[in-house]
Amino acid sequence: MPEPAADQAFADAFVPEDEAVEDAREAAHQFGIDAVSPAVGAALALAAAARPAGSIVEIGTGAGVSGLWLLKGAPDAVLTTIDEDLDVHQVARAIFQRAGHPARRTRLITGPADEVLPRMNEGAYDLVFVDAGWESVRAHVDGALRLVRPGGSVLVAHVLQRGRTADPVLRDPETVTYRELLRDVRERTDLLAGLSTVGDGLLHVVRR
Description:
Layout: H1 4-14, H2 19-31, H3 38-50, E1 55-59, H4 65-73, E2 78-83, H5 86-98, E3 106-110, H6 113-116, E4 125-130, H7 137-147, E5 148-157, H8 173-187, E6 191-196, E7 202-207
Parallel strand pairs: 1-2, 1-4, 2-3, 4-5
Antiparallel strand pairs: 5-7, 6-7
Helix pairs in contact: 2-5, 3-4
């Protein structure tokens, strides 16, 4: 049987990335940002296309890799993307423009997500993608679930932590945080949740 690493490499190569995403990925590398893998990007595009999404929120812009994938799935959507780092926002804005996405469809908000999310309209968005650090991920998921309308999706990256989340021996705060997040969404009757092993783990939650 193929090794898991070989499966991941095959999945990453299945949907080639265009020049804009390659530029964004290179910029992310220069900033030391752990951008989503190509396979995760493809999953984001599929989720955005499925409804299709007209209004998307992204928590954690990075250099624009995941935002480009989301817009690939929903090219007519308005993407609101939030990040604390002004420098990466400037890079992402330029990359979005070079990729042909007009400024009116890419709204970049620079600031802490825990301050921005409460000011956004409840139940007004089709999809929210959370790519945040472990310290804030649970609060951001709660905020994301407030923002999506019934039938809307919340996707969360890096939830498997390269195999750490599934290891019951590990009890460090980071691992426990992701484990508790998965438990909480699984047990909520108002949510439908699924977990994919693509990339570093992608949680997909739909608000009933």
